Amino acid sequence: MIKPKTTKRDTRKELESLVDQFIREKGEIQHIDMGESGLIDGKYNTSHIGFGEPKQDRTPLNHVVAAIQQRKKPTPPPRPAPRRPKKKIIYDDFGDPLRWVWEE
């Protein structure tokens, strides 16, 4: 039997019931200031913030891209499908069929 997927609504209901159960059992929710959990030695962790550095110049590599494009082999044109021989009928002088001939 396949277990049905849990929906967002089910997940929300489960979380709400867990929070309500925690509060009913005399649990206390503490207020924590924004960013406080990210403090390292009393300071904010700024190692992941990359906007404080000046913009770096990029090295143009147009000549490298051009060299790579030149080295690429051109794709060969598609080969035509091999022609199949056709059956042709030979008629006599009176228009009656005589025989079949295969033509390429």
UniProtKB/TrEMBL annotation:
Q: Where is the Transcriptional regulator SutA RNAP-binding domain?
A: 6-39
Instruction: Please tell me the species this chain comes from.
Output: Marinomonas transparens
Protein name in the entry: Transcriptional regulator SutA RNAP-binding domain-containing protein
- Protein origin, superkingdom: Bacteria
User: Mind telling me which InterPro entries this protein's record contains?
Assistant: SutA_RBD (IPR049191)
